[in-house]
Amino acid sequence: MAKKTFLDFEQPVAELEAKIEELRYVQTESAVDITLEIEQLSKKSQQLTKDIYSDLSPWQVTKISRHPERPYSLDYIHGIFTDFVEMHGDRHFADDLSIVGGLARFNGQACMVIGQQKGRDTKERTLRNFGMSKPEGYRKALRLMKTAEKFKLPVFTFVDTPGAYPGIDAEERGQSEAIGRNIFEMAQLEVPIITTIIGEGGSGGALAISVADQVLMLQYSVYSVISPEGCASILWKTSEKAELAADALGITAHRLKALGLVDKIVNEPVGGAHRDTDQMVSFLKRALGDAWRQVADLKPKELLERRYERLNSYGRFTDTKAK
Fold first, then answer.
1. How far apart are CA 162 and CA 98, in angstroms?
2. Could you read off the pLDDT of 257-269 as tens digits, one per residue?
3. Apex CA 283: angle with CA 226 and CA 77, to 5°?
4. Are residues 295 and 213 in contact, defined by beta-carbon separation less than 8 angstroms?
5. Confidence band, pLDDT 50/70/90 cuts, at residue 320
6. Domain boundaries, the chain
7. Distance (Å, rounded) from C-alpha 127 to C-alpha 111?
8. Of the candidates 60, 188, 202, 272, which lies 20 to 30 Å from 43 by C-alpha distance?
């Protein structure tokens, strides 16, 4: 059994799980039946996890969204879609592996699926640049979306990035233009777009593939204009204030749902998506089916009108000028 990774606030659960593993080891080596004790401790661990996860701070949710065992885009693509054929390259510069995408089928319906991929181990993280895309990544995503539009296929995107890559080479190749172009083109794309925030939804790096007709967000994911560390570094000149910044930014799913920035929150298994990937895949597949049914029959003109109204609804103000 693979060893679980526990976050700092999960240490009481980690200690219980360690005791359970010890008892299981003893069970295999001893003639004494301690199954009942193991079951009781397992129930206690489950309840303790529920108690901890019932009152999480935004900073704790941020840590869960970055959990190294959390399912990534390819896990959902292979679990939810069938007949996936990956497509590569932006036809301008290179193939950015931090963004994966290609043709697939969703419940038998042909579609285009695109997602940001972070990587599991050091080698893959380096290969995928920790999920931080360069301009060629966003241009690849746009190429796939325009292909989907040509063949009248819906687009499903999965967002999971700390942000766009801030390196000199990315800036030289037009990082901001690539992000801006994607946002502009997605606003006018004449096919349904369904986006899911599955982990971190960081800054323009997330926005570049998340202008959509339906935006879903996993329960313990985050979505923000900047990372808590980046915000703290600007406002307080130190990233040590990240926890305070996370509280102020309003980055959690329930906060964003209340503001009307996401349409649906997809519940996660007890302890987060990484505790039961198969169950999380099942939950998300059902939610995507519901989202697809809401936009499947809309004509292009209706889609664009709804999308325009949606974008215009972001940000509300009250005019207090005296009459």
1. 12
2. 998 899 999 999 9
3. 70
4. yes
5. confident
6. 8-55, 62-313
7. 26
8. 60
Contact 82, 110 (CB under 8 A): no
CATH code given to domain 62-313:
3.90.226.10
Q: Which residue has the tokens 């190749």?
A: 173
Residue 316 neighbours by CB distance under 10 Å = 7
Three-state helix/strand/coil letters over 253-279? HHHHHHCCCCCEEECCCCCCHHHCHHH
Distances, alpha carbon 293 to alpha carbons 6, 75, 148, 192, 290, in Å: 37, 23, 18, 11, 5
Helices (H) and strands (E) in the chain, counts: 14, 8
Burial (Cβ within 10 Å: 0-12, 13-18, ≥19) of residue 207? buried
Digit-coded pLDDT (tens) for 87-134: 999 999 999 999 999 999 999 999 999 999 999 999 999 999 999 999
Query: How far is residue 201's CA from residue 225's CA, in Å, rounded to a whole number?
Result: 8
User: For the residues of 203-262, what is the DSSP string, one character each?
Assistant: HHHHHTT---SEEEEETT-EEESS-HHHHHHHHSS-GGGHHHHHHHHT-BHHHHHHTTS-
Parallel, antiparallel or unpaired: strands 109-116 and 214-218: unpaired
Average pLDDT over residues 144-161: 97
Phi and psi at 60, nearest 5°, equal: -65, -40
3-state DSSP call for residue 101?
A: strand
CA distance 65 to 44: 25
- The pLDDT tens digits of the residues spanning 284-308 come to 999 999 999 999 999 999 999 999 9
For 266, list phi and psi in degrees, rounded to 5.
-95, 115
Q: What is the pTM of this model?
A: 0.91
Residue 1 pLDDT: 47
164 Cβ neighbours under 8 A, 6+ residues apart = 132, 133, 134, 138, 170, 175, 179, 203, 204, 205, 208
